[in-house]
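Hi P.,

Sorry for the delay on this. The queue was packed all week, but I finally got your sequence through. Input first:
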Amino acid sequence: LQLVWGDTLLAVNAQLKTQQGAEIARINTQAKLDNQWTINAQVNEPAGGMLGQALKLPATQPLKAAAQINIEQVDNRYQINLVQLDFPWQNQLINSQGTLWVNAERTVFEVRELIMTTNEHRQRIQALITPEDKQISAQLEQFPLGLVSLWLPVEGGSASGEIKAYWHNARSQLTLSAKAELISRYKGWPLRL
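Then the structure:
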């Protein structure tokens, strides 16, 4: 749902309710100026709900998430400040803050710094994604591998250290650099790298 007057996004207040009328999600947007917006969102869904199932949360885990996002347009770029982005994922609560830039004209996405906190451990992520290249670097502190278990065939555990990945489209080449320690299990066997 968007309400637009000319090029300006106006305030939007939306709610998602169950058939019984209980509110499970709310989103509010507000245009502070012609080039500044604030988005606030809250989700509070009982265990086993539609949104929790989509996120593959355990059937007994309720979905509680909150976000506060400030967006500012500077020329053809958008600065997105994640003041708060808290959500559950794979039996963990993730708290995130950071700054992202999007250049709509060149299709460039930049993560200046994204700080994710899991189990009181901070993960720092930076990225630059352009049509030509993709660069991602992460500084991990006991990063719970259960968060990526949908994509990596490991059984729990953690990773700590610094990891850098660079993909060059023209050469179809991936370069990885890592100074990290990974402790997990693979097909029931202990794994330590």
